[in-house]
Design goal:
Elements (H helix, E strand, L loop, with lengths): L2 H41 L11 H24 L15 H18 L4 H9 L10 H19 L3 H72 L3 H35 L2 H49 L1
Helix pairs in contact: 1-6, 2-6, 2-7, 3-4, 3-5, 3-6, 5-6, 6-7, 6-8
């Protein structure tokens, strides 16, 4: 076989394949075009002959939409817990933030120092731990910085009491901050993750089944409309097509009802709310207990500081 004959045969085979693919594409696009045209007619109010869906189906659709609204509304707020710094002071200077990386551990060790050399070693030591960005940790940093300033520069005994109080507040606020971080972690994993799963998996699957029903209905109604204006010689084939589309419409509706039922029954909003409140309760309980322990100590330091000032005044008078 010559080169020309080979080329001719290859060209003809390729052309035949292209025609075949074109016919296949045309057959696939035709239903889509019909559905699109039908949908446009309905939206423009050019037809009111629309197949009605079962009451059970429409009731389930309303429940699905309600669930989507509930989950989205809740997640729009609880997603706050995805960001560590949601309550961090916006005007806090970066320099203070950087200092917070080393200050907490340093102050705790400094409070327990027994010698000058030991205190000096603590002051120049580095702590690699980065302070979390929460309001409580910011308060801890601020009070610890102030305590450190006093311990470095003041020789006044009354100021030492202030430094002790600041240190105690700093330690307590850091613990409260850690409790808040634990609360946030629980909300992220046990609440937000479930909300997202419902939206991205279960409700998305329900929406997909609903779209399938809508497509089948549009195809069925478009075929019904075509049959009304069809030529006699085409009525028989159109009726066969219509019966097939009707069966597909019914099957898609039945499947969607099953999927939506499963989605509604599997909704666990109350379970997520239980987890949410449980996490909040644990945090607030921990914070309350820590503050209850701190307050008497601060009150004692306040009273001691007041007595110290009075004693200093009396000594000065003498």
């Amino acid at each position: 076989m010559s080169f020309f004959q080979n080329f001719s045969k290859t060209f003809q085979d390729g052309l035949a394949e292209a025609v075949k693919e074109g016919q296949k594409l045309s057959s696939e696009l035709s239903p889509l075009a019909q559905r699109t045209a039908r949908q446009l007619q309905e939206r423009l109010g050019q037809t009111d002959d629309i197949s009605q869906l079962p009451q059970e189906y429409t009731d389930l659709e309303k429940k699905i939409e309600t669930l989507k609204t509930v989950y989205n509304n809740l997640l729009s707020v609880t997603s706050t817990y995805e960001t560590e710094a949601y309550d961090y002071p916006a005007n806090l200077r970066e320099s203070v933030t950087e200092i917070s990386k080393t200050i907490s551990t340093k102050v705790e060790k400094l409070a327990n120092a027994r010698t000058t050399s030991e205190a000096q070693s603590i002051l120049i030591a580095q702590n690699p731990r980065t302070q979390p960005k929460t309001l409580n940790h910011a308060i801890s940093t601020s009070t610890n910085l102030s305590a450190l300033k006093i311990q470095q520069q003041s020789t006044d005994d009354s100021f030492d009491l202030i430094a002790q109080g600041l240190t105690q507040v700093g330690q307590t606020e850091a613990k409260i901050g850690e409790a808040r971080l634990q609360q946030d972690k629980l909300i992220r994993t046990k609440v937000n993750a479930q909300f997202k799963k419902q939206l991205k998996e279960n409700l998305l699957r329900a929406d997909k089944s609903r779209r399938a029903v809508e497509n089948k209905r549009l195809s069925y109604d478009a075929a019904r409309a075509s049959l009304k204006t069809a030529k006699p010689e085409k009525e028989a084939s159109l009726r066969v097509t219509l019966e097939t589309l009707e069966d597909e419409f019914a099957a898609a509706t039945e499947d969607a009802v099953a999927v939506m039922k499963q989605t509604v029954e599997g909704a666990s909003v109350l379970s997520e709310l239980v987890e949410f409140i449980t996490a909040q309760l644990a945090y607030h309980k921990a914070a309350s207990e820590l503050l209850e322990q701190l307050l008497p100590n601060l009150q004692n330091l306040r009273d001691d500081a007041g007595g110290k000032v009075l004693s200093d005044v009396e000594d000065a008078d003498i």
